[in-house]
Write a structure and sequence with these properties.
The chain is α/β, with parallel strands linked by helices. Helix content is about 30%, strand content about 20%. A three-stranded parallel beta sheet has the order 1-2-9, with helices on both faces. A three-stranded parallel beta sheet has the order 3-8-4. The chain has a three-stranded antiparallel beta sheet with strand order 5-6-7, with no helix packed on it. Helix 2 crosses helix 5 and helix 3 (about 80-95) crosses helix 4.
Amino acid sequence: MVDGTLDRENVDAVLNDLDEYAVEEALRIVEAHGGNEDDGPNSVTVISMGPARATDAVRKALSMGANAAILITDDALAGADALLTSEVLAKVISTEGFDLVICGTESTDARMSVVPAMISARLDWPQLTFAGSVTVDPSLSHVAISRITEAGVDLIEASFPALISVVEKINEPRYPSFKGIMAAKKRNIETRDLAAIGINAHSAWSQVIDSQLRPPRAAGIKITDDGTGGAQLVDFLAESKLI
């Protein structure tokens, strides 16, 4: 982390777990409305931004049944933050003519859960976030979701185009079949750099200027039961405001 960015060279390039639910939901939607076509309105395109080796993660989505994939990769994107990531993804989405964009709620590393909202704001699309269920009516260009909140269940509706983020309880992602895995190996992944999508290279809006190692865990409190162990435990819980 000499330059303020994480060293990811020894990290496997895998599909984000929470994005698998988004891919699965997209596949279920197109299958429920005429089947999954290689080219046409009933198709699923995966869009990702990352280093060249992110193709491994993208192929996982293709092996699940996605029809096409676009990978934006450029050395200038190293260390990109959420703001830059959302700018790049929104730019690609805006040129492709999609009706729906489906995202996982968050990445499993940073867990900020802000990129879906940022993309919708840049596109000026309605956002339906944290969806636990999705209902789509293509004939009316209409989508509705439900989501559980502390106050109850929210029902939210919007017209196309729209952006949805889904939670992990929405479905159970399918396992890629052998046929799907072999087909994914043959599918072309379209790669684009910043020049190809029309964005001038610039650094992230936020940067890490310092970091520190996590301090070692403090030793726990040991209670010796000399006949007052129960009282000591109660005192400890009371001091910790646990009772």
